[in-house]
Fold this sequence. Notes:
Bound molecules: protoporphyrin IX containing FE
CATH architecture of one domain: Orthogonal Bundle
Shape: globular
Distance between the termini: 72 Å
Number of strands: 12
CATH class of one domain: Mainly Alpha
Amino acid sequence: MTGISAGSLTEGLHTILKRIEAKPRKIVETAVQSMLQKLFQLTLSQPAFQNIPGPAPIFPIGNVLELQKGKPIWQVLGEYGQQYGGLSLFWIFGRPSLVLNDPDFLQQVLLTTQQQTGANTSKHRASQADFYKDLPRKALRPILTDSHPFVAKDAGPKWQHLVKNNPFNMTYFREWLETQVQPLQAFVETRAEELVKQSEGEMLPAYDVIQKLAFDGFSLATVGQVFPDPVFEQFNTLCTTGTDRMNRSSIASWMIPENPKGKPYKEVSRQWFSLFGEVVEKAQAKPSGGSLLDWVLTRGGSAFTPEQMRNFCAGVYPGGAVSAPSGITSTLHLLFQHPQELSALQQDLEALFRDPLTLERLENCVAVEQVLRESLRLWPPVPFFTRNTVCDRTIHLDGQAIPANTQIFITNWFLQRLSPHWQESESFKPERWDANTLVENDYGSDYFFPFGRGERACIGQDFAKFFMRLTLATLLAKVEVQFGNHPHDQEFYFGVSVPRQLKARFVLRES
Length: 511
Ligand code: HEM
């Protein structure tokens, strides 16, 4: 006997039969796929895009399946950088979309002025004037009003007015920020103690509790009060609807009505803006506190109307109360996974908190800055954003003619993880940020731009960095944040990548 039983023989035969069955299915699948690819070429493809590499689109969906692979879109777009180079193409149904993964192309789109290219004469290089911001405008309405700089199509006079008069751009902004160090430190300490108590019984959803902390901290700083919990819930209702509208508008923007249908969202939006209307009205009547709003009302410098000021106050949250908590949560998780780096940071924090904290001492704490930058490099909270080529003419990028009104995806995911620019690029190594690396890879440089680049880069970045530094330093000096084994999967939420799955317990550190 060879030891082969009747049972294993049947099993073996079964496997062989299955393979035989599978083969023709595979052959049919491949044939159908190539037929659909040809059909796409014949019907939807456009000659202008033929030279640009990318995955083969199929009729009628283009590359939509590519984006459903279970990976977030920015990771798929980043991988195109590896597979196809700095300029690639994918199709959302019949709509061509370019993906930029090259620092020089990004410079042209986000930094280069018309004068630098010799106006429209260049057949090779583009400039900022060749692009406009489109995609989120309709989808984000009505949580973002027309007086939010984010929704301005171009950097024209209206946008310039909004930016010049923005409270974050007042000459006394840093002076005001200095006054926020102590109150926000005390606020984060109290919140940390509450989180310790709340997580005694069960692990907490890490992003959600940090998002609430950021929402309340932002409120305290900008309008001088913490709102009741339902206001936070209203905000997330607006963000959830905005996310849904963004997802649908990326497929076909005509599907999105200018004003969202459905009563609950409309009503929430109305309540949200009326709340901030009242806040501004009260502050105007008696601007006595230390909030940014009070400072602007007493010190002046902004020509905003009361309505624009209301929209500024309401607009701080969609700007940063999704992204900043994503950055904070990711940093806490990375440090939990790297105990050596965490304990090195904690030693520096002990020195930092030996004397009262000041803005200057916080900003000069190299360990905090190294950890924050390394986290923003690996897990940028805003990993992609978009532009469109202008509607009235063909533009040229690297000699390639790009038709009018072509959608462009820009991602920092690929360049911020690109080897050999970043050695051991996938590893969390805060110490890589030595003095040279800090200077060579400043915020908004070729391989590090978590807040975007150029004149349309993030308006709230100084405040966001300040808030993230302060929250991380204060939390980590006071508590151990212990995470469970949940994956650092990222979910697309209101234009931000959010590590929603993480659960954490907060435990007081022994002093
Ligand atoms: C960690 C936190 C934050 C991150 C990662 C972040 C990221 C970004 C990025 C990448 C852009 C550029 C988008 C583009 O070029 O299309 C941007 C723009 C913008 N951000 Fe932030 N942001 C953060 C916090 C904030 C905060 C706190 C505010 C407060 C108001 C804010 C307000 C804005 C505005 C108004 C713009 C649009 C500027 C313009 O188009 O002219 N952001 N942000």
